[in-house]
Amino acid sequence: MWSYLNKRRQIVSVNGEDSSILEILFGVPQGSILGPLLFLIMVNDFMFNVGDTAGVVSYVDDKTLVHIEKLFAALMEVMSRALDQAADWFRANFLSLNTDKTQTLVLTLTDLDQESSNVKVLGIILDSKLTLSSHIEFVCNRLARVIFFKFKVLYSENVCKVCLYGIFSQCDLLWSKVVGRCCRC
Fold first, then answer.
1. What is the Cα 4 distance to its own chain's centre?
2. Could you give the CA distance from residue 59 to residue 83 in angstroms, rounded to a whole number?
């Protein structure tokens, strides 16, 4: 294992110009067989370092922090502390927290004075009331483009089926809602 991770070097070549050789201090070789396993071992302790403040839902490299609180101010305080702990964990493990991809969603049955926005979690667009209307609209728009493409350009039923499968395979759980509302898009 030591020789697999130690003393690796890289060089970048663009248009025949080579960079200087640099030693790689962190990480595993991209595209390697052991890479995904080593990554999962590395990030496995995330929930133990952040999970005492907020719950952690993990899916491969996506981490979702969740917490239930009756008071909005208390919720924001807990989640702010959890996000700080997550940022500390990332720094300690030589990883970076992509703040451009960090999103906040407050799920509530009541109306808050806070501006609510949609967030995308594992390909599903969620809103604060979990109505799925934004996701259904997104899927219907993609479906309309595929159908237009099929009828105007391809005239091939098999190609259309492949395109439709690609759209709906990511959201099997939402299939019944999409089918029920697509005709009204």
1. 29
2. 18
